[in-house]
Specification:
The protein contains 12 helices and 16 strands. By secondary structure, it is an alpha/beta fold.
């Protein structure tokens, strides 16, 4: 049965999204005699359980903790939350789900139980717990960041016209939603063609606090990225260019001098290796990657198998024509039976007339 206290904990957890990576976003509520005495959510400085204990102070003794994920039991950036809960002498812990991190995975709950604290799991919240920390759960289980391919498209699946491409496909409201999605991401990637055409920034413009900057990645096999581009000009330890060994050493030095990180990943056909980029992100503990690019990169990402989900924003427009660029170009599949397939499709309405399609690649 659902609980108002656990619902409150999940509302708190969502407030921390974007400010917790590489750790999960967690919410915690301390309840004593059916009254909330402490609230907290994981942020840049502390974990949810610690924030709730600090608010509750002496009233934490004998209280019940409702928490969206199992309390940690290991030393990371902070000491174990399980130890702090034991020291505070709380009586009971209700957790939505075990932590999938191998360093925790049941150990926090066992430590609490061994200390005499009553421990319960709330299976009715399992799906919500995984949804809030989708990228974290994916990374813990697969060993790779969650890769989302995002695009703004017309009703006939086009992302660009053959001539003038000034203006936007989708509305300001849809683009504001994209900024929220960017805020929850650790990294964002595009191709050099998009940078040359749009001189884009690809920044998180929500103004909300982040645990680390949104890492911007440009796929650029020959290092054509202009030194006077807005991306390079705004570089603040948040820009990487993924290139190949064929790139000019002189260009590499010039970009590195301006603070750009150069990643050399040789892939098939003389192009940058997409899978190597994703694997590098995992080593750096980036839990999620958004791809916002053009037709060629979109197809290359889909064909390579690195994409886990799509998020397509549809505008009530049709471009038509054979020269307007489709959302995914490249060679494509030659048979309908070979089409890339998605599952768990969700539709998100964006009033008055737009919608977004979210789906997961069948691998």
């Amino acid at each position: 049965m659902r609980s108002a206290f656990m619902d409150e904990a999940f509302a708190l957890a969502r407030r921390g999204l974007g400010a917790t990576s590489p750790n999960p976003a967690v919410g915690a509520v301390l309840v004593r005699e059916q009254e909330i005495v402490g609230r907290g959510y994981t942020g840049i400085a502390k974990h949810a359980e610690i924030a709730a204990l600090e608010e509750a102070r002496d009233r934490a003794r004998g209280a019940t903790l409702y928490v969206t994920l199992e309390p940690c039991s290991h030393f990371g950036r902070t000491p174990p939350c399980a130890d702090a809960l034991i020291e505070a002498k709380i009586a009971r812990v209700v957790a939505a789900l075990e932590d999938p991190n191998p360093l925790v995975r049941g150990q926090g709950l066992r430590r609490l139980s061994q200390a005499g604290i009553s421990v319960e799991l709330a299976p009715e919240y399992t799906a919500e717990a995984e949804e809030v920390n989708e990228a974290f759960f994916h990374a813990m289980r697969s060993g790779l960041p969650l890769v989302t391919l995002k695009s703004a498209v017309t009703l006939d699946g086009k992302i660009a016209a053959p001539a003038d491409n000034s203006g936007w496909i989708t509305s300001e409201r849809a683009r504001a939603h994209v900024q929220e999605v960017r805020h929850h991401a650790d990294a964002i990637m595009t191709g050099i063609g998009t940078v040359l055409a749009d001189d884009c920034l690809l920044t998180d413009r929500t103004g909300k606090p982040r645990s680390r900057p949104l890492l911007r990645i440009v796929l650029d096999s020959t290092l054509r990225l202009p030194l006077d581009s807005r991306m390079v000009a705004s570089c603040a330890n948040d820009l990487a260019v993924a290139t190949t060994s064929a790139a000019s050493a002189e260009r590499r030095r010039a970009l590195e001098y301006r603070g750009v990180k150069i990643l050399v990943f040789d892939g098939p056909g003389g192009r940058t290796g997409l899978r190597q980029v994703v694997e590098w992100l995992n080593v750096q503990q980036y839990r999620s990657l958004m791809i916002e690019s053009g037709s060629k990169v979109n197809w290359a990402a889909l064909e390579s198998g690195i994409v886990d989900k799509i998020l397509f924003y549809y505008a009530p427009k049709i471009l038509g024509g054979l020269q307007s660029l489709p959302v995914a170009g490249g060679a494509g599949r030659q048979k309908r039976t070979d089409a890339i397939v998605f599952r768990n499709i969700k539709l998100h309405t964006i009033p008055p007339d737009e919608f977004a399609v979210e789906g997961y690649l069948v691998k």
